[in-house]
Amino acid sequence: MIQIKHKETGETLLELELDSLVTADLREHDLQGADLKGMDLSHAQFQGTDLSDADLEGTTLQNANFINTVLRGANFKGADLDNARFSDGIAGHAAAMAHCCLQDARLTSCDLRHVDLHQANLSKATCSRSDLHNTHLEEADLREAVIGSALMIDANLRGADLRGAYFCNAHLNGANLARAKLDGAKLGGENCIPAIANLADLSNASLVGADLSGASLLNANLTSANLADSDLSNATLSGAILRKAKVQNADFSGVDLTTVTLAFANVSKAKNVHLPIPKDDLR
Question: 177 and 155 in contact (C-beta within 8 Å)?
């Protein structure tokens, strides 16, 4: 017999005639505030269950199914969620995870398409190889998160804190990173397959000291972005907009600026800038 109790009141929320919760069928239950801390729930089925404010710290949840599950405010700190499914690709079926704590959690190879993670804490979480198409991460905390080889196409990261995050080989095409903090983030560099952020919105984003070397930023919007001290060497910026961008000490080595909009960006303070010669000046 296993009893699942409320984390604060001790009230029994569910009794199960089981010896283990591995592969348990926990669908369509009200488990708000449940205490599941440290349990092994590998391959468990949670579809349609309400786990709002539940404590799942340190829980093993590999291959668990959270499609259409309510997880608002749940604590997954340090949990192992590798290969878990939070979505089937249909927006209305994605898990609701706003304000969740996923600090130090493992989320490798997870399906997180369309999932609502706004204002969630994913600091130092590992999301490598996960699918985050159209995921909502507005104002989320992703400081020092590892997001290598993740698919973040059209993801909403508006106002997110991504300082020190690792984005090698991540795909951010069309992602909304307006007002995001990416200071010290790694999107390129030695021993790194550069990130792809074509058509991304990075307007008013802070990228101070970010490593963008070799990154692809085709037609990206960097209007009023702070690129001070960043490394943009060999980055692809064709069609990008750097209007009013701050580029003090930014390194543009090997960057073709022919089609880049640099209006009101003081490139005289940047390094290794080679501006195209206006046709009128050619003899």
Answer: no
The CA distance from 115 to 212, in Å, is: 27
What is the 8-class DSSP label of residue 14? Answer: E
Sign, CA torsion 143/146/147/148: positive
pLDDT of 280 > 70? The answer is no
pTM value?
0.94
CB-CB contact of 17 with 1 (8 Å): yes
Q: Give the separation between CA 137 and CA 69, rounded to whole angstroms.
A: 17
Q: Are 274 and 253 contacting, i.e. CB atoms less than 8 angstroms apart?
A: no
Give the closest residue to 173 by CA, choosing from 115, 143, 133: 133
Interval 224-235 mean pLDDT: 98
Q: Which amino acid is at 263?
A: A
The angle formed by the CA atoms of residues 203, 248 and 138, to the nearest 5 degrees, is: 25
